[in-house]
């Protein structure tokens, strides 16, 4: 990961760990249910959850797996995850700070590896996927979910710029075809892919989670108000009084390590 | 200090070689490149940028 991106992510998420712990879109959602359903963790599996944040994906897998190792780039996130796991009396979690592109694990030690709503912060998704491949055993399962972007370049560009204004650590959202290509290139066989789930967001909550200042909030509001009909349609933008609702599509992918 | 299972699966994020726990210094040490990773709040800090370059490791 490029140094500049790592520092931005640390700054953004070190500050925001407690708000993420309270944030509903990260805490619930059927995308997580689908990931668990597809991956089918069993009582013998050792699972890796990369960029766990405050641990919601790790917790979902920990209910079924023997062991879940949760990593993040930010110590504050893992401290929050550890606290929340304690509240849920989950005892089969282990934690390590790690960069997604330089995982600190031996080859082939995991049965399942996951990463949810995080790769858009990674500077090097191909390196991350190569690392996921390395730490999985032969035949192991990769299950990913991330905010995605339309295949159409114009609507995609609007979304990428909006994300970067809100969160300087945002790198880019990848389209479903980009996800499939990168995952296959890393040596996986993509077995299932879904783009049916969406992350439903409201602007007021979205900027609060990021800790945006009033100037940035104004700038973002104007972008939504001036968005083209194509953009409004692609992201289901709707106005309700002072509130702006919208949604990002999610790409969910199940792949087998060959 | 560190869970036994975690120590067994950890590797150096830089060169991917095996690591060992150095209890007196509370560091996880790479057996190949000698990078030394701190442990904070019981959590291994396996970040290359936060590692110290130790002396060349002794052959075990």
Summarize the structure.
The complex is a heterodimer of chains A (258) and B (60). By secondary structure, chain A is α/β, with parallel strands linked by helices. Chain A has a single domain, classed as Vaccinia Virus protein VP39 (Rossmann fold, 3-Layer(aba) Sandwich), CATH 3.40.50.
Explained architecture:
The complex is a heterodimer of chains A (258) and B (60). Chain A has helices at 3-22, 24-27, 30-39, 56-62, 75-87, 125-135, 153-166, 176-185, 203-210, 214-225, 229-234; strands at 46-50, 67-72, 93-97, 110-116, 136-147, 188-194, 198-202, 238-240, 243-257. Chain A is α/β, with parallel strands linked by helices and 258 residues long. Chain A has one domain (3-200, 249-257): Rossmann fold, CATH 3.40.50. In chain A, strands 1, 2, 3, 4, 5, 6, 7, 8 and 9 form a nine-stranded mixed beta sheet that branches. In chain A, α1 (3-22) runs parallel beside α5. The mean pLDDT of chain A is 93. With 60 residues, chain B is mainly β. In chain B, β2 and β3 form a beta hairpin. Classes of the chains: A alpha/beta (258), B mainly beta (60).
């Amino acid at each position: 990961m490029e140094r500049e991106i790592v520092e931005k992510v640390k700054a953004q998420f070190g500050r925001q760990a407690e708000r993420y712990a309270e944030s509903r879109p990260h805490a619930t959602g059927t995308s997580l249910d689908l990931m668990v359903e597809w991956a089918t963790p069993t009582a013998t599996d050792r699972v890796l959850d990369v960029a766990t944040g405050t641990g919601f994906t790790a917790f979902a897998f920990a209910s079924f797996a023997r062991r879940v190792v949760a990593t993040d780039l930010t110590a504050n996130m893992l401290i929050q995850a550890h606290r929340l796991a304690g509240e849920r009396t989950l005892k089969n979690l282990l934690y390590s700070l790690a960069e997604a592109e330089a995982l600190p694990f031996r080859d082939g030690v995991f049965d399942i590896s996951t990463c949810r709503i995080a790769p858009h912060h990674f500077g090097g998704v191909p390196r991350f996927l190569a690392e996921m491949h390395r730490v999985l055993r032969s035949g192991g399962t990769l299950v990913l979910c991330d905010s995605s972007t339309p295949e159409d370049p114009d609507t995609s560009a609007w979304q990428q710029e909006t994300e970067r204004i809100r969160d300087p650590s945002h790198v880019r959202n990848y389209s479903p075809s980009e996800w499939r290509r990168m995952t296959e290139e890393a040596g996986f066989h993509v077995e299932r892919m879904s783009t049916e789930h969406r992350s439903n967001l409201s602007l007021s909550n979205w900027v609060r989670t990021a800790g945006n200042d009033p100037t940035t909030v104004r700038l973002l509001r104007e972008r939504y108000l001036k968005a083209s009909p194509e953009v409004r349609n692609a992201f289901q933008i709707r106005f309700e009084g002072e509130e702006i609702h919208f949604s990002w599509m999610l790409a969910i992918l199940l792949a087998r390590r060959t | 200090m560190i869970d036994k299972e975690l120590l067994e699966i950890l590797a150096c994020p830089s060169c991917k070689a095996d690591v060992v726990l150095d209890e007196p210094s509370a560091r996880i040490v790479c057996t190949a490149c000698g990078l030394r990773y701190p442990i904070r709040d019981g959590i291994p800090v396996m970040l290359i940028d936060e590692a110290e370059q130790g002396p060349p490791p002794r052959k075990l």
